[in-house]
Amino acid sequence: MQNAQNTFYIALRNRLAELNPNRTIYLRGITRPGILVESNELVTAKLPSDTFVVRWSGLQGDPFLPATLLQMECEIAYASEGTAGNLGMDRGAALTEMDAELVSILQPTCTPKMNYAQSPAIQMGTQIFWTEAKFQPTKIERDRLSRVATISVFSYEEPGEQ
Amino acid sequence: MLRLPTNGVAGSDGEQLGQATPSYEDIPLSPAVFRRLRAELKDGAANRYELLISASSIGVQLGLLQLSSTSQLFGMAYGIVVDGELMLIEAAAEAEAFGKPYLYRLILRGPESQPF
Questions:
Q1: How large is the ipTM?
Q2: Domains of chain A by start residue, with CATH
Q3: Cβ distance B95 to B47 under 8 Å?
Q4: Residue B20 in contact with partner chain A when CB distance is under 8 A
Q5: Which residue is closest to A48 within chain B, CA to CA?
């Protein structure tokens, strides 16, 4: 399960870096692609702006298949206040740009499962795959627009996996 | 004490996947006034506190850390340690006089109250 979650995040991160190298976040002294896993970072009171935040929520298993298939629910939250140069009047366009980027980086909807517990990472025997994103309505908090997209990620548990 | 995480390692997958053990440094801030915001306690509810810090103390740290704004400083901090207890920074505001800040006000979230 952990391998599948790590693989999903790294796949999206690498695709985002290729698609839009300018979408970055400065975190703990490092500039990196603008996507993070919320539970892997320091607790903050507010979502970072212009960054994709990945959260893992539900989990279901199907034990009746020859190999256990896990279905993990993933939320990707993002928000924008627009840019200061435009006095925030481009916040709608900024959120739409993030919608489009998310649609792009979720394609193709599969990737080989990797084990990142070892360095360098090693490719495992199966793939993870996921559904199209379901976009929730835009939430408006004063000058901040935000949205959550939900995706179901599927992974076969391989022998020896936790 | 302001608890700041030390810089991460660029390009490290393990760090972004939560596999690294983070390190931090505590920076003393004084003079400061600390007080509880909400006197009534409820089981399971986090206590909230207010910390008033002298702007001169913050100004010194901005210079030492080569940061351009206090929002950057408070944004990168893990929290404030008061008497060994770590509290998260929920909000920060400054008070100004003659166009210059003289005080920073932080709202802190303490640990949840425990039932007896």
A1: 0.77
A2: 2-156 (3.30.2000.30)
A3: no
A4: no
A5: B75
